[in-house]
Design goal:
Structural class: alpha/beta
Number of helices: 7
Largest sheet: 7 strands, parallel
Oligomer: single chain
Strand content: 25-35%
CATH superfamily of the largest domain: SPOUT methyltransferase, trefoil knot domain
Shape: elongated
Number of strands: 12
């Protein structure tokens, strides 16, 4: 069932069922009451990443209190996306963009990976979570991706489940066409690894290419910024072997 983009969608971290009533947080109150200027009886769509999407009605028992009551389910909860997205952190503004786009493109798990040339750092997972929720609210997504704590690249590879193939964007790959390479992949469980602005070091490239569960792909003849490469790679993977087929 397609999302209804005419109504405001709101993530609520509480159980949703017929008659469930949740008090809006101060941020939600400000947005719904002061920005959108919704009043008693106002209608929104609510979701929590677990119980599907619900038509909900607003009520103001006091001037500073807003209740959100679930009325009926509009969409059932779908299975969570299985595509894992591994990325070297970027500087804050571009990291926000990259995380939002990864959610829009169907990533089910976000794993920050610390590499030798990494330029950004993860100091606040709450900020990443806020970007994930915002992207889900705006794009009709019902499953909230998991955010894993940052890990070093070697640690990630040393403990990797071999049944999940890792596709990594290798700027040193001689060819320019990713599709023939992706079409040869047989595994159903996939992960995408995108490196930092400075690219992977030669040591890291050798490490990745030495893993039998890793497949390098090119992204064409142009040099892409890391956040652009992430969107391009996610799109080509989803189109070739993912859920766009």
């Amino acid at each position: 069932m397609r999302a209804n983009f005419r109504m405001q969608r709101l993530f609520i971290d509480a159980a949703l069922f017929p008659g469930a009533s949740v008090e809006a947080s101060s941020e939600q109150f400000n947005y719904l009451a002061n920005v959108l200027r919704l009043t008693d009886g106002g209608q929104i769509l609510a979701f929590n990443g677990r119980d599907g999407e619900w038509a909900a009605e607003l009520s103001f028992p006091t001037r500073k209190k807003l209740l959100i009551e679930a009325k009926e389910q509009t969409r059932p909860q779908p299975p969570a996306p299985d595509l894992h997205y591994l990325f070297a952190p970027l500087k804050v503004g571009r990291l926000d963009y990259m995380v939002q786009k990864a959610v829009e493109m169907g990533a089910g798990l976000l794993q920050p990976v610390m590499t030798q040339h990494v330029q950004g750092k993860i100091t606040n997972l709450d900020r990443l979570q806020a970007n994930v929720v915002e992207a889900a609210e705006q794009c009709g997504i019902l499953s909230i991706p998991t955010i894993a704590p940052p890990r070093k690249l070697r640690d990630v590879l040393d403990n990797w489940p071999k049944q999940r193939r890792v596709v990594f964007c290798d700027e040193g790959e001689e060819s320019q066409a990713p599709l023939p390479i992706l079409n040869r992949i047989q595994e159903k469980q996939l992960a995408l690894l995108v490196g930092p602005e400075g690219g992977f070091s030669e040591e890291e490239r050798s490490l990745l290419r030495g893993c039998d569960f890793v497949t390098p792909i090119p992204l064409g003849p142009r040099i892409l910024r890391a956040d652009t490469a992430a969107v391009a790679a996610l799109a080509v993977i989803q189109a070739a072997i993912g859920d766009w087929r």
